[in-house]
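Hi team,

As requested, here is the filled-out complex form for the iron/sulfur cluster run. I kept the field names the same as last time so the parser does not choke. Let me know if anything looks off before we queue the next batch.

— J.
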Amino acid sequence: MAWTAKPSATQRIERRAEPYVTAALQAKWTQDILPKYATKHGALMPILHEIQHEHRFIPYQAMLEVAKFLEITPAAVLDTVTFYDEFTTEQLGQCVIGICQSIACEVCDHKKLLDHVRQRLDLEPRETTDDGKFTLLTMECLGSCDTAPVALFNDVLHEKLTIEKIDQLIDEAKAGNAAHGHA
Amino acid sequence: MKLSEPVLTKRIPTAPFGDPKQRHTVGFDEYVKTGGYQALEKALSMEPTAVVNTVKDAIVRGRGGAGFPAGLKWSFLAPIDGGRRYLAINCDEAEPGTFKDRLLCDFDPHQVLEGIAIACYACQLDTAYFFIRGEYHHQARVMQKAIEEAYAGGIFGKQGLLKGKSKFAVDCILHRSAGAYICGEETGLLEAIEGKRGWPRIKPPFPAVKGLFGRPTIVNNVETLAAAAHVVERGADWWKGIGTQSRHPGGMPSFGPKLMGVSGHVNRPGVYEAPLGVKLSELVNDYCGGMRNGKKFKGAIAGGVSMGVLGADQFDAPMDYDIGRDYQVLGLGTACPTVFDEDTDMVAVARNIARFFKNESCGQCTPCREGSGWMLKSLLRIERGDGTSADLDLLLEVAGSMGLTPGTTICGLADGNNWAVRTIVNKFRGEFEARVKPKFVPVYVTAGR
Ligand SMILES: Cc1cc2nc3c(=O)[nH]c(=O)nc-3n(C[C@H](O)[C@H](O)[C@H](O)COP(=O)(O)O)c2cc1C
Ligand code: SF4
Ligand code: FES
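And here is what came back:
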């Protein structure tokens, strides 16, 4: 995760006219999040969670706006964004499939699942399908080792997975079934 | 070895006392109806220092991995100076193999909140951050709801603890992490709450003196706090009646019931509550219905991958805090063993664990950042069959050189990597040697004259 160098110095920032951090959001955060932390910097993670959830990534422009709102440097925001796996600087698919690859899942045959999804969606881990529907991720232990192998579909955990079950989940996600939560 | 009654799983049906199919999330009303928040009531009738002393007397060892006694930690707090003081509840639970805190969040969140309220009163901490890993989406929702219920029920909030029974007021805030194992390390966790990257801090100063936002802070595991509530309610002597003394003269005892999550090749994997000191073989055979498909036991992760593995001849190891000293592993950790049957490829196990640590190293310390990459590379080579016995030696050398114990790193993540890899290679050396090519040995031949 954390320590790979990112090309931040040469990064081109895509901009759009309307701000990500709107006046309404600022008012909401000022009321709901800022009072929970002793410093403004402390409010950064809950705010990033909201942005990631809304846009499925953290746009660079949003980082600049958040930095201004919290009165911290843009570098401090980038630092936090790039450290945590759940915050991404590239947009994820509508359905993020995170297959656990840690030890209990590996010894309970996670590889069959992973290979199946790779083939079916023609994806390698960390890639997103061209239509933006699916992102495949390999994840470390999801805290459900007793029901291995497991995978997250967005924010919903699916346990004791088989190829049939995961196929069904993918079919449902393709059909746009919202029952599988949001990224 | 069995408990006479469930303690932490009182409201979470678990074999042998109940049927897991009956489990449901216990809300505020049901919790109160079944005797909940009485421990808090009792605590509030005592002086704060008396509460600390009860937990100290009982020797409640931390359930987050290190086994440090909670009461002792609480007594290290800097004196009250009128400024803010914090409790940080560690629900990061990202150690592969570990899934016990999740059980408490899923089904009995108020048991945890009661422990939090008691710890806050005992240590006079005014703000509690419930730090939960990002991947626990469902658990974060359950805890958030329970916290709201607790505010509405007068546990937390301005009026003071337990509807103002004590004037001391506590705020409880849920903080979601975002996918970084290192934030389970107590100072990495504090950095994450401050909105920064989760880089562990150099200690001292310890959090009890200078922690969150520079203020005195106690960091405790979810299960530790839940256990502390029971100790306050039923007394230190009751707690000491469960578990076991140390096998070493003068050693610290292992008291109390413990949640143990068993995964891997057993018939009924899951979280069970057992007294500390229960044998791994009992846990597998009596609680989990034996090895899957009648296969033979080959080894097990002692308790979270950081602890290393127990070998085939260590099936009867007692699950208590002496396990490290007596069975060549790092320690009991979270007491959540992953069990392997005879068909398991231990080279693959080592590679899997090495990959985990390489991915999760925060990169601050060179031995951990670079060493974890080297170790993964040589294990991949060995697994492919391209390694030589020189790789094995290098592997052990690199592993042994990283961690707090050799004194080369800031935090214990590197020790976990060190112990995991060394114990697997040492206890299953034959399997590794069968996979590597022999080292090139020059042979000199003198031909004729
Ligand atoms: C790399 C690393 C990861 C850790 N992860 C966790 C964790 O997920 N949960 C936890 O409770 N403790 C974890 N710990 C232990 C904590 O640093 C700390 O000892 C513990 O939260 C203290 O609580 P306790 O005394 O109640 O056990 C971790 C330690 C290290 C070095
Ligand atoms: S030991 Fe590893 S994880 Fe811990 S601080 Fe150093 S680099 Fe980071
Ligand atoms: S190893 Fe996959 S959930 Fe723990």
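Two things worth flagging: The mean pLDDT of chain B is 96. Chain B touches chain A through 60 residues (CB under 8 Å).

Thanks,
J.
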